[in-house]
Amino acid sequence: MKIGNIDLGERPVMLAPMEDVTDPSFRLICREQGARMVYTEFVSAEALVRNIASTARKLNIDDRERPVAIQIYGRDVEPMVEAAKMVEEAGPDLIDINFGCPVKKVAGKGAGAGMLRDIPKMLAITEAVVKGVSLPVTVKTRLGWDCESKIITELGPRLQDCGIKALTVHGRTRSQMYTGQADWSLIGELKADPRMEIPIIGNGDITSPEGCVHAFDEYGVDGVMIGRGAIGAPWIFREVAEYMRNGMKGMVSDEEKFALLRRQISESIDRIDEYRGILHIRRHLAATPLFKGLPDFRQTRIRMLRAETASELEQILRETEEKYFK
What we know:
Layout: E1 2-3, E2 6-7, E3 13-15, H1 24-32, E4 38-39, E5 43-44, H2 45-49, H3 53-56, E6 68-73, H4 77-90, E7 94-99, H5 104-107, H6 119-132, E8 137-142, H7 152-161, E9 167-170, H8 185-192, E10 200-203, H9 209-219, E11 223-226, H10 236-246, H11 254-271, H12 274-287, H13 298-306, H14 310-324
Parallel strand pairs: 3-11, 4-6, 5-6, 6-7, 7-8, 8-9, 9-10, 10-11
Antiparallel strand pairs: 1-2
């Protein structure tokens, strides 16, 4: 699969952009584990144009991450074009436009998935950004605003006509947020549309190698993007790659998984500070499948998610490893 001149190989599996998740450390770990491309946290165009420091820091990328995309969102043409030009100067491999974020503070203000209620403006922004930069531009969106307006099969060709180089579709509407099951049927229908010439990337509920292979086989997508399935489990990309290559499962040992979680904790602390770094990593510790189904683990989980120092957290991890994994 190619996005512009970026060759991602056959059946690429990528890390989805996620706010407060896809920081530089996590992106690099996922790349090392086999993600073919990674995406930054989404960047507010208006905040970037206003030179908000915390937003500008999201443009920091490491050459070891490449290929890497920076994703932007906004509700007006001019700030989006200006932000795209600023992003281009930061040197990513491509620019992605977020038309899919469902959270109220974004979609409720008309940005992200909110654009699904204003298609003319969505298309105007897309066309202007494509013309305003020389990097490949892609779009990530959803099936539609709600179950009564699943418009992606008609929207896809119109976005393609704006000049984008790939389209990622999350198999839910905005009104669904992240509830229920992702519906890949319309993603498959869009991919089968003879009008579509750009790569179609599917996203939603991919949490296992089998699920990833099923998405490729059943819906014919060019690529798969993994989001929440990678939180607390960056090794999923390696597991998927091994499964697609030789059909083998469980290729990442528990020891390796613990080592990756410890690395995330350490690098999160180094990047921010001890207290806030641990707060940041709690989402990964709460979500990791490594601890799913462990008997009598509830109190240990509570202690883990309340730990405030690196030494306290390491002690809990060590106890858990010795009790359940030795």
